[in-house]
Specification:
heterodimer, A: about 525 residues, alpha+beta, Beta Polymerase, domain 2, Cytochrome-c3 Hydrogenase, chain B, 2 domains, 5-stranded mixed beta sheet, about 20% strand, globular, B: about 325 residues, mainly alpha, about 70% helix, about 0% strand
Chain lengths: ~525, ~325
């Protein structure tokens, strides 16, 4: 189905309520809602969701109070089958800062709308669970950190008091508070378990301890400097996030980067995927105390990290991406080495797979642990490996290809069971796929420049940038003001979508299995909190 | 009893205690070393546990604000009870100077005392992890203890005595183990893995509080208290290895106090201990930790093995060797 047909359908259904509808960057349909028709927002979202089986991707707000005396909401949907994005822009008057909740009908928008409430002070009317998400209980109410009148340098006085967490009550029900500081090298987050003996009745999480104001920091900065911020959104996804940001800038400027740069970016993205997946497989083995599996996975991972260092001068591929391409080229002489490492990774992983799957004790720990049902995953909008392990066959590399992913052949591995085993196996399969993607890339790596210069950002523009990071889809949205300066930078990390999955997946499991379930999702605190 | 015997007895007591104290950290180090080698790692040096203990002993103790005297006395209770077991377990000689004060039944209950105080201290510290650990420890203990009793009793029935020295001496009749001994050995081996918090049951090296059993109870300990707890854990490991070695594989153990036989006993003891520790480490590396709710199944297996041992003993027309 073409974007024209979609636009015509929307036009005929909602003609009276839409200000504008147009296509941008070939695969983005932009729908602008009339300001007085804000109450139609949920209806249009639901129509898009049902009519074209569109997945909710993200929702965010921006503050245009100074110029237009209004906020703007942006709801982003992905029409996977049509390889299209659909963005619904809805203005919210500054005089009446509320909007009808989409999450009331489409629960996937739950966290996104709560974040908008907390950071912009726009009330989602009818939201099923409108309690604070981003702001901690001691954060002063009516202080909204993402509004333009809030200075990044201000230090609001925290509120005093006791802040009880709603708990499950009943005979024999205990509360176990865990964190925010954990043992080991783990980011901060507070978990509250309500348990009856060992089985978990309910888990609540207080995240956003590592909020660094990255989105706010970016406002007014030059794109070159924001690139450095994007690399630091989540350390394990350095290249994924910087690719999404560069992509946004390049699309905004109407640039297509040289083919050689595209291939190098794919190479980096897949290397990032491989080293993170290997680490996760090892850590899952470690969490069930299967030491041989752990040592095996980490040894292979180290080879990949060392290769990263030799190729790019950075084990985590930091400082490699650049606006308009990449910074470092690949010398011909090292290509055979990469190829042989890919063969080695495959062989070693196949062996590890056998060791793990032939060990009854490991299989017993992984199977049926932390099940995330497909219907739950679909409803709450789970993405990436966690989604694919629960049967959601989605992958931005295939569904929204750029960088030349469409020229490559690869499978998107999925599993149906949604347990820790499924998430482990999806990782194993993905590493196998990634090694052969890299081989395809190296087979015919085009010659040419690795970088082109980027012009100044256009004025009053909007662009999306995205890629499939190792954890799931990473999406960045960029807006510029009338001078061409960045006025809104939205970062959407897959962790933000998948944290709720953990809360569902642990239910009915026992407390000592929680670390394993948590590790099988391996969500980023930093990427979630930004 | 003449003076010579008394002095020999006292010397034996001191040697046993000293050996137990000093050897225990080395066995722990050996287990860690084997595990490291199995994982392609170099691992810490063999003297590391001694350095750790020495460091901890000189460090300041931080006590939780909610902790009472139970928290303070527990490390001493645990340390002393574990060490006192060294007096009733044959190490490299079956002649136990203090054998008359306790037998296998006493051993089980002395260990239970240590466990009881550790569990109380876990609760006393006031952290949620301590309570979690205590509750898990006590529920597993209710299955570990009968399994352990049955395993050792099989050996006791064979020997016709509950005195560990006599059991060791009697078992040394032939070079071959009876089927009954073999099954009881397997039963006790499983108990030993569980009691010392080894991998299919507990993971002594984990940092994940939510999965801990023993480590969760002692999470709030620091300084010299932690040193005592760690040292006691090492001694407990050595104790179980000693039981396995001397009750079921007592070859070479010395039955008199001549220097030659003591020497043979000591060398044999060392070899057996380190061989058993190696087996334990290899098992730890090659199996994943069990789901907590599966641990009772494993211990039930141990119980059944011991039961089979007992039945075999009577079926095969076993007769107690000992003169009661």
């Amino acid at each position: 189905m073409s974007s024209r047909l979609i636009m015509e359908t929307l036009q005929s259904e909602f003609a009276d309520h839409l200000a504008k509808i147009y296509v941008q960057h070939e695969d983005e349909i932009q729908v602008e809602l009339l300001s007085e028709r804000l109450d139609w927002l949920p209806k249009i979202c639901l129509f898009v969701h049902h009519q074209w089986k569109a997945f909710f991707v993200s929702a965010w707000a921006s503050d245009g109070c100074k110029q237009e005396h209004q906020f703007k909401l942006h709801y982003l949907f992905s029409l996977d089958n049509e390889k299209l994005f659909l963005v619904i822009h809805a203005p919210v008057s500054a005089d009446q800062p509320d909007f009808p909740s989409v999450a009331a009908h489409l629960i996937a928008a739950n966290w996104a709308e709560r974040e908008i409430q907390d950071t912009f002070g726009l009330t989602a009317v009818g939201h099923p669970n409108p309690k604070a998400l981003w702001s901690h209980p001691d954060w002063p109410s009516s202080t909204f950190a993402m509004r333009k009148d809030f200075s990044i340098h201000s230090n609001p006085t925290r509120v005093d008091g006791d802040f009880p967490i709603a708990s499950v009550e009943g005979e024999g029900v205990l509360e176990i508070p865990v964190g925010p500081i954990h043992a080991g090298i783990i980011e901060p987050g507070h978990f509250r378990f309500s348990v009856a003996g060992e089985p978990i009745i309910r888990l609540q999480a207080q995240l956003f301890y590592t909020h660094k104001g990255t989105e706010k920091l970016a406002e007014g900065l030059s794109p070159e400097r924001v690139l450095h911020l994007s690399e630091r959104v989540s350390g394990d996804s350095t290249f994924g996030h910087s690719t999404a940001f560069c992509h946004a800038v390049e699309r905004m400027c109407g640039l297509t980067i040289p083919e050689r740069a595209q291939s190098l970016r794919i190479l980096c993205l897949e290397l990032e995927r491989i080293h993170n997946h290997l680490s996760d497989i090892g850590m899952i083995a470690n969490d069930v105390a299967f030491l041989i599996g752990y040592a095996h996975a980490m040894r292979v991972r180290e080879d990949v990290m060392s290769l990263n260092e030799r190729l790019w001068g950075s084990r985590l591929i930091r400082g490699v991406n650049a606006l308009g391409g990449v910074r470092r080229d690949l010398s011909l002489s090292i290509i055979p080495e990469i190829k042989s490492l890919m063969i080695k990774v495959r062989e070693e992983l196949r062996e590890l797979d056998q060791i793990l799957m032939n060990s009854a004790s490991v299989v017993d720990r992984l199977e049926t642990t932390g099940i995330l049902h497909q219907s739950t995953a679909k409803d709450i909008g789970i993405v990436g490996i966690a989604g694919r392990a629960s049967g959601l066959d989605r992958d931005f590399r295939r569904d929204h290809p750029h960088l030349g992913y469409s020229r490559l052949t690869f499978n998107v591995p999925t599993r149906q069971t949604g347990d820790v085993m499924a998430r482990t196996q999806v990782r194993i399969d993905e590493v196998m796929e990634s090694t052969q993607i890299i081989e395809q890339i190296l087979q015919k790596i085009p010659d040419g420049p690795i970088k082109i210069s980027t012009p100044e950002l256009p004025k009053s523009a909007f662009a999306l940038g995205y890629c499939e990071g190792w954890r799931g889809p990473i999406l960045h949205a960029l807006e510029t003001d009338s001078h061409g300066a960045i006025t809104r930078y939205k970062i959407d990390d897959p962790s933000f979508h998948n944290w709720p999955a953990l809360l569902f997946a642990v239910q009915g499991n026992i407390v000592p299995d929680f670390p394993l379930i948590n590790k099988s999702f391996n969500l980023s605190y930093s990427g979630n909190d930004r | 009893m003449n003076w010579t015997e008394l002095i020999t007895g006292l010397v034996m007591i001191l040697i046993q205690l000293a050996l137990f104290l000093l050897l225990a950290p080395l066995v722990t180090a050996w287990v860690r070393k084997v595990k490291a080698i199995m994982q392609n790692r170099q691992g810490p040096r063999m003297m590391q546990p001694y350095s750790d203990l020495w460091k901890l002993l000189r460090k300041e103790v931080i006590q939780p604000a909610t902790a009472s005297w139970i928290f303070t006395i527990t490390p001493y209770v645990v340390f002393v009870t574990t060490l006192s077991v060294a007096l009733i377990v044959p190490i490299f000689t079956t002649i136990l100077p203090l054998g008359f004060i306790g037998d296998v039944i006493a051993l089980v209950y002395i260990l239970a005392t240590a466990r009881f105080f550790t569990a109380l201290a876990g609760l006393d510290a006031g952290s949620p992890f301590g309570g979690l650990g205590s509750s898990r420890e006590m529920s597993l203990a209710s299955i570990i203890e009968p399994a352990m009793m049955l395993a050792i009793f099989t050996a006791a029935v064979t020997a016709g005595s509950t005195n560990l020295g006599t059991i060791a001496a009697q078992a040394d009749v032939g070079l071959l183990l009876t089927p009954a001994h073999l099954f009881a050995f397997l039963g006790l081996f499983i108990v030993a893995m569980a009691e010392t918090g080894r991998i299919p049951v507990d993971n002594p090296a984990t940092h994940l509080e939510l999965t801990m059993i023993h480590e969760a109870m002692i999470l709030e300990y620091s300084g010299k208290y932690l040193a005592l707890m760690e040292w006691a854990s090492s001694m407990k490991l050595l104790l179980f290895l000693t039981l396995l070695a001397n009750v079921f594989l007592p070859w070479g153990i010395s039955n008199d106090l001549s220097l030659v036989s003591l020497g043979v006993g000591a060398v044999g003891y060392g070899l057996k201990i380190f061989a058993l520790a190696t087996v334990m480490a290899v098992i730890e590396c090659s199996t994943a930790k069990l789901r907590l709710f599966r641990v009772p199944d494993l211990l039930a297996a141990s119980f059944v093995l011991s039961l089979i041992a007992l039945i075999l003993f009577y079926l095969l027309g076993g007769e107690s060797h000992a003169v009661l």
